[in-house]
Amino acid sequence: MQFNVQWFDEMDSTNTRLIEEVRRDPHLPSGTVWAAKSQTAGRGRLGRKWDSFSDGNLLFSLYQRTHASLSHLPSFSMAMSIAVDEMLQMFHVHSNLKWPNDVQVQGRKIAGLLAERAGDDGVVIGIGLNVNMTSLQAAQIDQPATSMAIETGAKWDVNDVLKTLLNSHWPFWYERWKSLGFSGLRDRWIQRCGGLDLPVVVRDGENLLHGTLAGFGNHGELLLRLPGGRVQTIWAGDILTPL
Ligand code: BT5
C-alpha cells in the first residue's frame, strides 16, 4: 500500500477538508493522508467534537477508495481501531477496544475514529490519537482521557507514530477487512473488547438499554441481550459501562 502524507499546521477538520478534496478531485489517489498539527473544529460522531491541544497529538484523515457499500463503513472503522490498538501495544501502551470506535486504556479514551463516505466509491477515516497530551490537558476533556505520553512517561514523535500505524499495522487489517469484512475482525475485536456476556449499558439514541454483550453482527453492529433474553441490534450508539 502506498500512502502520500501531507502535513498542515492548522485545519478546521481534516475529515471535512479531505472529503471536500475528494469531491473536488475524483481522481485523488487512494492512500492520500492529510495530517494537521492542530485542529480548530475537530469532529466526533453524532455532532460531538474532538478536542486537540496545539501540537503533539495525531490528527489525520486517510482517503481509501473502496467499492464497499455504506453498511461496511462501521467495520472499516473497526479495522482501523484494531490497527491502532495493535500499534499501541508495540509502544507499551496497554490499550483495549470499546465499541464502536474507541481505543482506551482502563476506561480512559486515547483515540477516536470517524469514518465517512467520500465521493461515490471511497471513505475518509479520521483518527485522533492522543500522543503527547499532558494530564492537565486530558483533565479538560469531558470524559476520562489519556495519551501515550501519560501512559508511558515518554514523549513521542507524532510522525513516527503515524508512519508506524500506516506501514506496519493498517495494511494487514485493511486487507483482512477487504477480503472478509467484519468476519475477518470478529475474533480479534471480541478478544480486545473484553469478551462476550459482559453486562453493559448502551445508549441508543434517547434510550438507555441494560443487558449483556451477545456479540456482533455481520457488519460489526452490536448485539445486546436484554434481560428477557431477546437480542437487540444496535447500529449506532455508545457503551456507557467502563470496560
Ligand atoms: C470520536 O467521536 O471519537 C471520533 C473522533 C475523530 C477525531 C478525528 S481527528 C482527525 C479527524 N478530523 C476530524 O474532524 N475528526 C477526526 P465520538 O465517539 O463521538 O467521541 C467524541 C467524544 O470523545 C467527545 O464528546 C468527548 O467526550 C471525547 N473526546 C473529545 N476529544 C477527546 C480527546 N482528545 N481524547 C479523548 N476523548 C476525547
Q: Helix amount, in percent? A: 25-40%
Q: Determine the mean pLDDT.
A: 95
Overall outline: globular
| Class from secondary-structure proportions | alpha+beta
End-to-end Cα distance, whole Å, is: 34 Å
Characterization of this structure:
- This protein is an alpha+beta fold and 243 residues long.
- The chain is globular and about 55 Å long.
- β10 and β11 form a beta hairpin.
- α2 packs across α5 (158-180).
- It has helices at residues 14-24, 73-90, 135-138, 148-152, 158-180, 186-192; strands spanning 4-11, 32-39, 58-65, 96-98, 102-105, 108-117, 122-129, 199-204, 207-216, 222-225, 231-234, 238-239.
- The chain is built from 6 helices and 12 strands.
- The strands form 2 sheets. Strands 1-2-3-7-6-5-4 form a 7-stranded mixed β-sheet, with helices on both faces. Strands 11-10-9-8-12 form a 5-stranded antiparallel β-sheet, with no helix packed on it.
- The mean pLDDT is 95.
- Bound molecules: biotinyl-5-AMP.
